[in-house]
Design brief:
heterodimer, A: mainly alpha, MetI-like fold, 10 helices, 0% strand, B: alpha/beta, 6-stranded mixed beta sheet, 4-stranded antiparallel beta sheet, 8 helices, 25% strand, globular, binds adenosine-5'-triphosphate, binds magnesium ion
């Protein structure tokens, strides 16, 4: 299969790995499917040939079976609801704070000077290190988990939104002022609107972190949740369950990613 | 309406980074006039326009509109930049409507005026297109329509055709001249293109660089009924040569 679109008389197609080569849609889809299929195939072969002890590497069939039984018992649904609920709550709060703050920091150098040093430092304090403190302050219910996700994502969101805002052309802001626009109108109708695609992309990238944190939080103290289930499975040496939960985590993350991409495509057609 | 620029000076920075950009600029512009400022790159043209627009504050001197000192940006002084000034998420019509929306005009007026000004710039058929679907010349026409729609007393143009290629630039000059003749606008055009200034303006101030100051003024009393003919006429070419010579003399270090 050729790498470039046109394959006319005597012109050699670009090899796939030359810079600037775009594979044809068919080749592209093929590569994308292989990306998932090859590891799956390897896994199937390795466990079928029993190259690794099945206790350590459960077969795809065993994992599927364990997934099905957890789904039947309702555990799976319960775990998914618990974990996604925490992620969305924490990340939503972080977004609520980060977007307005990031925009203001990007637009007003004074606010930036006031906040950036502190945020730059807080960002380097690993969120997980706050868990003991959060438990002391907030107990072991949902609050510390949501707070952990908030702390672990808010700083990155602020800084990345701030950077996105700096790409708003100065001309666009000044045009708005000469058209009679006032401070709030400029911030909301121009700066935020122009940065919306980058802001959505920022959220898409940073929400991955909150999945990390929710699992960490559940390992420490939780009744239900995907992370909690993994910990329980370890106690009973149920590697099939661990695999199943990992795959579910990956799939949910993937779905959220696609959701953000869809949102971007629907709301920011002009930027694509 | 009268725009008065009085002893305007502007210095950026301080200490070692101090840079005197404009020194004692004075001129006036009355309703219906078309004035141009020409100067080489870095002579402070944009800075003058930004001071008039209220986007910068003068170090000394002042800008008066009808006797009132300019304090900040406002829709009585409409500005069109060289580029990047259309809202990329809005269609041509929505761009034109945007300024009126900011000012809270009634929905019906906005609709009417948008249609009217799109027609004035000849873009009624492109109303629903996004900026990126328009050519550079069309984009600038939308920007002009958007500014006109907010009913400014004076139109400030900062090299509005500088990013366009020659043919389109000439077409846009024809367009702007006709617009001015038809509507009785008041225009202040900034350009480094001597020909553009002479084709369009009634009066041209020449700006010398480092620091920027007005060193001469040319009255343009040419017959502007046919611009293509004008561009080739002896009288025009003569004026153009003289003006270009003046500008070149101000910039001896370039060769
Ligand atoms: N905000 C600022 N801070 C410091 N210096 C500035 C600032 N704005 C402009 N200058 C300086 O002032 C001088 C004049 O700039 P200005 O943009 O007015 O020139 P111009 O005549 O419009 O040039 P061009 O034809 O390239 O657009 C330049 O040397 C520029 O570096
Ligand atoms: Mg300039």
């Amino acid at each position: 299969m050729a790498a470039s679109a046109t394959d006319g008389g005597g012109v050699k197609p670009l090899p796939l790995l030359s810079i600037g080569a775009t594979p044809s849609p068919l080749v592209r889809s093929g590569l994308q499917v292989s990306s998932l299929l090859i590891p799956l195939l390897l896994w199937t072969v390795i466990s079928a040939l029993e190259l690794v002890d099945g206790k350590f590497l459960p077969s795809p069939a065993a994992v599927l079976e364990s997934l099905a039984s957890m789904a039947r018992e309702g555990i799976l649904f319960q775990d998914i609801v618990a974990s996604t609920g925490r992620v969305f709550a924490g990340f939503f709060l972080a977004t609520l704070v980060a977007v307005p703050l990031g925009i203001c920091m990007g637009v007003y150098p004074a606010i930036c000077a006031l906040c950036e040093p502190l945020i730059a430092m807080l960002r380097y304090m690993p969120a997980a290190a706050f868990i003991p403190l959060l438990i002391i302050y907030l107990g072991i219910g949902e609050e510390p988990k949501i707070a952990l996700i908030f702390l672990g994502t808010v700083y990155f969101n602020v800084l990345m939104v701030m950077d996105a805002v700096k790409f708003v052309p100065k001309e666009l802001i000044e045009t708005t002022l000469t058209l009679g626009g006032r401070g709030r109108q400029v911030l909301v109708q121009v700066v935020a609107r122009y940065s919306l695609p980058s802001i959505i992309d920022t959220l898409r990238i940073n929400i991955a972190t909150s999945w990390n944190l929710v699992v960490v939080a559940e390992l420490v103290a939780a009744e239900v949740g995907l992370g909690k289930r993994i910990q329980l499975a370890q106690r009973f040496f149920r590697t099939d369950q661990i695999f199943a939960e990992l795959i579910v985590l990956g799939l949910i993350g993937f779905a959220i990613d696609m959701g953000f991409r869809l949102l971007l495509r629907l709301s920011c057609r002009w930027a694509l | 309406m009268e725009l008065q620029v009085r002893h305007l000076s502007k210095t950026f920075g301080s200490g070692q980074h101090r840079k005197e950009v404009l020194r004692d600029i004075s001129f006036a512009l009355r309703s219906g006039e078309f004035l141009s400022l020409v100067g080489s790159s870095g002579s402070g043209k944009s800075t003058i326009l930004r001071l008039i627009a209220g986007l910068e504050q003068p170090s000394s001197g002042q800008v008066l509109v009808d006797g009132q000192a300019v304090q900040g940006p406002g829709p009585d002084r409409g500005m069109v930049f060289q580029k990047y000034s259309l809202y990329p998420w809005l269609s041509a019509a929505e761009n034109v409507a945007f300024g009126m929306r900011l000012q809270g005009l009634p929905q019906r007026d906005i609709k009417e005026r948008t249609a009217y000004f799109l027609e004035v710039v000849g873009l009624q058929d492109a109303a629903r297109k996004l900026p990126r679907e328009l050519s550079g010349g069309m984009q600038q026409r939308v920007a002009i329509a958007r500014t006109l729609a907010t009913n400014p007393k004076v139109l400030l143009l900062d090299e509005p055709f500088g990013a366009l290629d020659l043919q389109i630039r000439e077409a846009m000059q024809d367009f702007l001249l006709q617009l001015w003749q038809r509507t009785g606008l008041t225009v202040l055009l900034i350009t480094h293109d001597v020909e553009e200034a002479l084709v369009l303006a009634q009066r041209v101030h020449v700006l010398a660089p480092h620091p920027g100051r007005i060193v001469s003024t040319v009255e343009v009393d040419l017959d502007k009924s046919d611009l293509n003919q004008l561009r080739l006429s002896a009288a025009f070419l003569e004026k153009r040569r003289t003006l270009a010579g003046v500008l070149r003399q101000l910039e001896p270090a370039l060769v």
